[in-house]
Amino acid sequence: MPGPRPGGTSFSHAVPSQAPLELLGPFLPGMEQSLEQTTEILLCLSPAEAAGLKEGINFVRNKSTGKDYILYKKQSHLRACKNMCKHQGGLFIKDIEDLDGRSVRCTKHNWKLDVSTMKYINPPGSFCQDELVVEKDKENGLLLLELNPPNPWDSDPRSPEDLAFGEVQVTYLTHACMDLKLGDKRVVFDPWLIGPAFARGWWLLHEPPSDWLERLCQVDLIYISHMHSDHLSYPTLKKLAERRSNIPIYVGNTERPVFWNLNRSGVQLTNIHVVPFGIWQQVDRNLRFMILMDGVHPEMDTCIIVEYKGHKILNTVDCTRPNGGRLPMKVDLMMSDFAGGASGFPMTFSGGKFTEEWKAQFIKTERKKLLNYKARLVKDLQPRIYCPFAGYFVESHPSDKYIKETNIKNDPDELNNLIKKNSDVVTWTPRPGATLDLGRMLKDPTDSKGIIEPPEGTKIYKDSWDFGPYLKILNAAVGDEIFLHASWIKEYFTWAGFKDYNLVVRMIETDEDFNPFPGGYDYLVDFLDLSFPKERPSREHPYEEIRSRVDVIRHVVKNGLLWDDLYIGFQTRLQRDPDIYHHLFWNHFQIKLPLTPPNWKSFLTCYEQSRAEISQG
């Protein structure tokens, strides 16, 4: 069940010249026209081709579109799906380890799909594959059909109007943060402008414009796509809230609330709005926006369409399959992530196949696949202009030198050049403070005033970061009273609520170099019965060893934070046997932990009471 959502009330603020924003209200699909579900024919097989399908798995390609499909035949029964892994869009091939001929293996991360059931078997307990409808035609040929719900953005369609020069301007600030001027309104996406993300693992690559705080204070609304700290930056929002606490902020109605940790963050924001997916939110007569969910991580990831005078701007942010892969075509401006490297895999893994050579080749291959995928997506959607963003971070802390050197990211210019080879899409590689004038670019992409670069001499890349205040917050947890008592381990994992799963994990607290921390904890957790054995159990079981920097793991434990700070923030080193990704385990600790932290005050009180009773006895 979704947790409680922050309310949205208006208060006066520190910018008296600007009245609080009042939306005109949502536009509900069906208010002015009815939208119908559509059926799309993805593949036609002739009678001879249909008769030639073998028992078991068949890989089939639509030669006219280049799209790939999988058909599974068992006697007269057929099942079908797209040949696309639901995890990150990889291509399936035959699984040579499957002796029964029912599973296929993804070429990206070795995920396995049982096409006889359309359930993923590696990792176990993860996703189900979306099925296609299989129909016979009159001549005994086969049709593969996809049933598409109506596109929500097609409700109340509006024809594009002419834009005056300067009427719509898009200014890049840093990472995923864009400042949009839309007539007399201003909208900002995902402001991360100071401090780290993911505990201490990510830092800004670009130097934000010096007036970033003044810019934020003047906007009419902020959209925050999801709860990851490179998009929901509490250090940035704290600075903003000190100046304008009631700035309107809009988020999607995700299962885990975007602002689930607001009360404990110390940031005083009073005007947060949680809006439903797929419904136009009307800002004024000319401006509206619609938030859409991700098809792979609907519980946390979102993307947005902004429309001004009929001109659409699509921001897919970090979504793996935004809106389940159904997106508007021929928008005026599209922006998306591109860089890769936003994961601890494989840099933080060791043992088995995870040699330095294997990791380097994997990263090189993965980045190339991502580039090709993004280029293909842009080619399919045919936006007028495309901008790669949301990938401008660096592992700048000296202790993460190894990650910085090995976690190679894609070059935005390389992606843009690939796009231009295969399409007529205009591309824009943004630099901090650069502004794109949409009206000019739509009229003439060669207009020298279409994109205004920052003034000569403007600092583009950061060369120093203020580590001290943020590391001080993390280090404060190391000596917390909680960790004087070994029983915190049982208290924490009982609170976490993950059990009845055959996995044994060894947790080791470490120093900066991932060597055991003097006096730190080294313990086992058996998640089958949530016990804490001294030795690994004798039964057959998967095993993981997780080494975590002591300041980060204790900060996470103390505050009941999600483990993204550890994993995506590169603050762990991992080994696993066998080499299987345990989706249920990681998904729980990265997304599904309780919304309120452990009650450490009660824990310490009970501990003191127990000690008193023992001493009296």
Quick structural gist:
With 617 residues, this protein is α+β, with helices and mostly antiparallel strands. Helices cover 21% and strands 25% of the residues. An 8-stranded mixed beta sheet has the order 1-19-20-21-22-23-24-26. Strands 18-17-16-14-13-12-27-28 form an 8-stranded mixed beta sheet.
Walk me through this protein's architecture.
It comes from Camelus ferus. Its EC number is 1.14.18.2. Pathway: Amino-sugar metabolism; N-acetylneuraminate metabolism. Residues 45-143 form the Rieske domain. With 617 residues, this protein is an alpha+beta fold. The chain contains 14 helices and 32 strands. Helix 5 crosses helix 7 (412-422) and helix 9 crosses helix 11 (550-559).
Our count of helices gives 14
Structural class: alpha+beta
Shape: globular
**Averaged pLDDT:** 92
| Content of β-strand | 15-25%
Unreliable segments of 5+ consecutive residues: 1-20, 28-34
Task: Report the C-alpha radius of gyration, rounded.
Answer: 26 Å
Fraction of residues in helices?
A: 10-25%
Sequence of strands across the biggest β-sheet: 1-19-20-21-22-23-24-26
Question: Between the first and last Cα atoms, what is the distance in angstroms?
Answer: 46 Å
Q: Which structural traits does this protein have?
A:
single chain, 617 residues, alpha+beta, eight-stranded mixed sheet, 14 helices, 32 strands, 25% strand, disordered N terminus, 2 iron, 2 sulfur cluster binding
SSE layout and pairings?
Elements: E1 25-27, E2 38-45, H1 47-51, E3 56-61, E4 68-74, E5 77-82, E6 92-94, E7 103-106, E8 112-114, E9 119-122, E10 131-136, E11 142-148, E12 168-174, E13 177-182, E14 185-189, E15 203-204, H2 212-218, E16 221-223, H3 234-243, E17 249-252, H4 262-265, E18 272-275, E19 280-282, E20 287-293, E21 302-308, E22 311-315, E23 333-336, H5 356-381, E24 385-388, E25 393-394, H6 401-406, H7 412-422, E26 426-427, E27 435-437, H8 438-443, E28 451-452, H9 468-475, H10 488-496, E29 504-510, E30 522-526, E31 543-549, H11 550-559, H12 564-567, E32 572-577, H13 583-591, H14 600-616
Parallel strand pairs: 14-16, 16-17, 17-18, 22-23, 23-24, 24-26, 29-31
Antiparallel strand pairs: 1-19, 2-11, 3-4, 4-5, 5-10, 6-7, 7-8, 8-9, 10-11, 12-13, 12-27, 13-14, 15-25, 19-20, 20-21, 21-22, 27-28, 29-30, 31-32
Helix pairs in contact: 5-7, 9-11
